[in-house]
Amino acid sequence: MAKSLRLGIAGLGTVGVGLIKIIQDNADMLTMRTGTSISISAVSARSAGKDRGVDIAAYAWEDDPVALATRDDVDVFVELIGGDAGPALAATEAAIAAGKHVVTANKAMLALHGQALALAAEDAGVNLRFEAAVAGGIPIIKSLTEGLAGNNITRIMGVMNGTCNYILTRMETAGLSYDEVFEEANQLGYLEADPNLDVGGIDAAHKLVLLSAIAFGTQVDFDGAVLEGIGRITIEDIRAAGEMGYRIKLLGVTQMTDTGLSQTMRPCLVPQSSPLAQLDGGTNMIVVEGDSVGQVVLRGAGAGEGPTASAVIGDVMDIARGINIPVFGQPANTLKSAPAVQTAVESPFYIRLNLRDEAGAMAQVSTALADAGVSIDRMRQDGQQDATAPVLIETHPTSRQTLNAAIKAIEVTGVAIHSPVVLRIENL
Amino acid sequence: MAKSLRLGIAGLGTVGVGLIKIIQDNADMLTMRTGTSISISAVSARSAGKDRGVDIAAYAWEDDPVALATRDDVDVFVELIGGDAGPALAATEAAIAAGKHVVTANKAMLALHGQALALAAEDAGVNLRFEAAVAGGIPIIKSLTEGLAGNNITRIMGVMNGTCNYILTRMETAGLSYDEVFEEANQLGYLEADPNLDVGGIDAAHKLVLLSAIAFGTQVDFDGAVLEGIGRITIEDIRAAGEMGYRIKLLGVTQMTDTGLSQTMRPCLVPQSSPLAQLDGGTNMIVVEGDSVGQVVLRGAGAGEGPTASAVIGDVMDIARGINIPVFGQPANTLKSAPAVQTAVESPFYIRLNLRDEAGAMAQVSTALADAGVSIDRMRQDGQQDATAPVLIETHPTSRQTLNAAIKAIEVTGVAIHSPVVLRIENL
């Protein structure tokens, strides 16, 4: 006689619908694999009447997700509402307080409230699981928290925002400007209601800081992450990078240094031969480096109905199997608070700047770089006849701090028409 | 007050030594992450006196792994002896009978005795875990059994033997013959005592059949796997594949068909642009396809002290955390016995054959192919002045059965100097 596990699902967008399909279509398989009958007691969403392509008539309806989360016939509250606070947070808190397990796909909520929620869940003895919050169907949370748990993680890198990946790839292949592709993505419905969540790197950084917490045993620290969006990338940058043997990707890097935790989410140049460079559209990739395992790479769809629902049901199945481990892999009350720092690791940088059409402008840039201790590996300015054509510089390896000083010195000269675009080159 | 989990480790080769280092160097981290103090009670190996670079003086010594496996102060028996039967199997059976959990890196033992051992372990209520048996540090067993458990897996493909990968890559980059590189690998200590385990595809197939059992809910069936080694691959094959846009890899493919389970481990041509083609040396890659998740790719070191020990300690930590799920992801007594079949999926094929220097030889080959229903996409014979130069053929997509009939017909004509080399082209 199989045990039973009853879900309450709040949020019936693509992921919620995908989850319902899996549970309706694969009930026997889920029972076989978990020894537990997994069922849905109740659902909640903004509109009860909407046709979602799945039959939800058998499930109780709740207008209020908090009421859903605390129902007697709900063992696991599945939070697919989204948003870093509001109903998602209220219902999650209510579920934990009522002794319900929680499975969520909500990276924003966890990035901002993860520590408090983890403490509450562990106090209550319930699971709070979030595989679906990071990189869709890729089992990265499980891999980090369990499979690779015997490692001291040294660094994690990843491309984790499909929209940015789409925009950058589309600019390159279609030769379109950022604004044109942005508008195209908007028409296609690829952008969040607040597009800055995607193109500003915020969504991807939400994911990165969750990985940091697990990898380094630190409290989730979104405020400590350094963010830079893709809005200043031009088609010239993409072309120039290509000619130099690179592609531009919105890359997240987290690593623990001697002085603190460095978390960055920024557009970077990566070699065309790197697996990271070869990602198209919505594919995500995460590179984990551990002291024993070396480098492990995981790749898969970072979003979408099926992949994200796959992650949610995986978490539900773990709960059905009785697995209960700390939210971030060690008890939340043992997670340390690490100072946020920028890594001191040196790298080459790509610089684009437009100079005023005046004699000696280039010399002033060269002098500013040299005085700051930044040496130039290669430099070009196409269309020499047009003095306003952008100047593209690849530096020898240097630290971000040194480079920032050089950029400031260039700005002080007044020869640059706009603040230079600076992109780190990650040779991986 | 942390709980405790005491290990008995049998086999002190590289993996055993790696495991001891992790436990000695990271005791606090392991305790923090599992809430359990993980310690070593006793060890066993062939030679007690040998200097292995780790201090084992604090551990009891057992000459007999069966005695080790059944000690009162051992909770988990870690089997790193190797070999499909003999002491490894005897000690594993003894451990299970004595109510001990087992963690093993032994793919051969599980490929041949996995079903019986899983039944015994589940009867006894103990864990039998084997992340380290497949693809070293890549958490593929956990991903399949847990993270992706909500999927109907449709296909798994993988490059899972570093030695074959090394040989094929080295032949290509150094322009050396198979025999030369084989000897080189032998000198470097890369080969098993029985090299056919590697170059015959046996070791890789051992891994593949374990993945099949989890993916398809079937009893481990090594006898049903179709194996072909890399011993007939020549430098000409590698060069010809390269000129056609492919690289040759020992590729495992497992999929459930309407008529049964197809498991193949064979050298194949894969497009140079495929991530599989870009693997070097000891790097493994596994591609999992599921109905919800789509395609997930995992890449990492497939062998070696650190990566394999990382997988072993991951399993140990799961046991410390109280996780106990069925060995192959569903109860062993529910695993089905599926008939072994060859997939009917059509693909193009690469054929190399050397013809006798006689008039009409090529015409006879063409006729034999056409009569069997195999159509030629492209064909070449370099050095037309030398009639004995190999003929290279790429066919249009056809089934293996059709192709085999054509090859038999070619052999009957007697114009081929040797049995043609036939390699499947996998466009992935």
TrEMBL record, chains A, B:
UniProt keyword Amino-acid biosynthesis, yes or no: yes
The highest taxon in the source lineage is Bacteria
Q: Which CDD domains match?
A: ACT_HSDH-Hom
Q: Which PROSITE patterns match?
A: ACT
Its annotated pathway reads: Amino-acid biosynthesis; L-threonine biosynthesis; L-threonine from L-aspartate: step 3/5; Amino-acid biosynthesis; L-methionine biosynthesis via de novo pathway; L-homoserine from L-aspartate: step 3/3
Query: Domain ACT spans what residues?
Result: 350-428
Top-rank EC class of the record's enzyme: oxidoreductase
**Entry coiled-coil feature ranges:** none
- Keywords of this entry: Amino-acid biosynthesis, Methionine biosynthesis, Oxidoreductase, Threonine biosynthesis
Alphabetical list of SUPFAM superfamilies matching this protein = ACT-like, Glyceraldehyde-3-phosphate dehydrogenase-like, C-terminal domain, NAD(P)-binding Rossmann-fold domains
Q: Name one Pfam family in it.
A: NAD_binding_3
What's the EC number here? Answer: 1.1.1.3
Output the PANTHER family linked to this UniProt entry: HOMOSERINE DEHYDROGENASE
| NCBIfam families xref list | PRK06349.1
Family label:
Belongs to the homoserine dehydrogenase family.
Under which name does UniProt file this protein?
Answer: Homoserine dehydrogenase
State the organism named in the record. Answer: Amylibacter marinus
Top-level taxonomy:
Bacteria, Pseudomonadati, Pseudomonadota, Alphaproteobacteria, Rhodobacterales
